[in-house]
Task: inverse folding
C-alpha cells in the first residue's frame, strides 16, 4: 500500500457506529476530556454524540473490556482511564516492542515493503522541508506501521497498533520545538539506513535512540 493510499484510506474509511463511538470515547478518556471518576450517563452521551442506546452500549462494553471504564452494579459506568504509572508502563512496553519489531522487520521485510518504506521516507523529507507538522505526524505513524507489518507477526502488530493509539492520545501537545521535524527526520533516517544495510543491530540502536527521544519530547523530560 502506498503512503498516499494509506492516508486516504484512513481519512475516508467508514466505521460501524459502535466502533466510531468507541474511538471517540476512548480518545476523550485518554486525552483527559473525560476524567477518572466521571460518570457516563447513557442519556447524556446519546444526546452529545447524537446516537441511540444500542451502539452506545456496545461502545461502552468495549471500553470496559479495555479497562478504561468500570460498570458498578446499581450505580452505573464510571471512567477509570490511565494513571501516570499506567502511561509509564505503556510507554516502556511500546519501547521494547518497537525495538523487537525493528529486528524482526529487517529480517523479514519484503521488497514491496522496502519500496513502501522508501516512498514514506521521501515524504518525510518533503514535509520536513515544508515544515508541515500535521502531515509529518501522519507520515511518522505510517512509517512505523510499515515496520510493524514487515515483522509478519500478527500478535506483535496488534499490540503495537494498540500502544500507538493509546500513547497518541495521552499527553497531547500542540507545541513542538523548532527542531522537532529535523530531529525526527534524523532519527528515522538512521532507522531507514539500517533497513537499507540489513543491519539488525544498527536498527535496534537507532530505534532505541528514537524511542528515548520520543518520550522526552512527548513528556517534556
Result:
Amino acid at each position: 500500500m502506498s503512503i498516499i493510499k494509506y492516508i486516504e484510506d484512513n481519512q475516508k474509511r467508514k466505521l460501524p457506529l459502535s466502533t466510531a463511538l468507541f474511538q471517540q470515547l476512548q480518545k476523550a478518556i485518554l486525552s483527559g476530556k473525560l476524567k477518572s471518576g466521571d460518570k457516563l450517563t447513557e442519556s447524556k452521551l446519546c444526546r452529545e454524540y447524537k446516537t441511540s442506546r444500542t451502539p452506545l452500549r456496545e461502545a461502552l462494553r468495549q471500553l470496559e473490556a479495555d479497562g478504561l471504564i468500570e460498570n458498578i452494579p446499581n450505580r452505573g459506568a464510571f471512567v477509570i482511564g490511565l494513571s501516570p504509572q499506567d502511561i509509564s508502563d505503556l510507554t516502556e512496553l511500546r519501547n521494547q516492542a518497537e525495538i523487537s519489531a525493528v529486528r524482526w522487520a529487517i529480517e523479514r521485510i519484503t521488497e514491496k515493503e522496502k519500496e513502501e518504506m522508501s516512498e514514506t521516507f521521501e515524504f518525510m523529507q518533503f514535509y520536513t522541508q515544508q515544515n508541515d507538522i500535521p502531515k509529518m505526524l501522519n507520515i511518522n505513524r505510517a512509517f512505523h506501521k510499515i515496520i510493524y507489518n514487515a515483522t509478519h507477526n500478527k500478535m506483535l502488530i496488534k499490540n503495537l497498533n494498540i500502544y500507538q493509539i493509546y500513547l497518541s492520545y495521552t499527553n497531547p501537545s500542540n507545541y513542538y520545538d523548532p527542531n522537532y521535524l529535523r530531529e525526527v527526520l534524523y532519527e528515522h533516517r538512521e532507522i531507514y539506513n539500517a533497513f537499507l544495510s540489513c543491519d539488525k543491530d544498527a536498527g535496534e540502536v537507532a530505534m532505541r535512540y528514537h524511542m528515548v527521544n520520543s518520550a522526552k519530547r512527548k513528556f517534556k523530560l
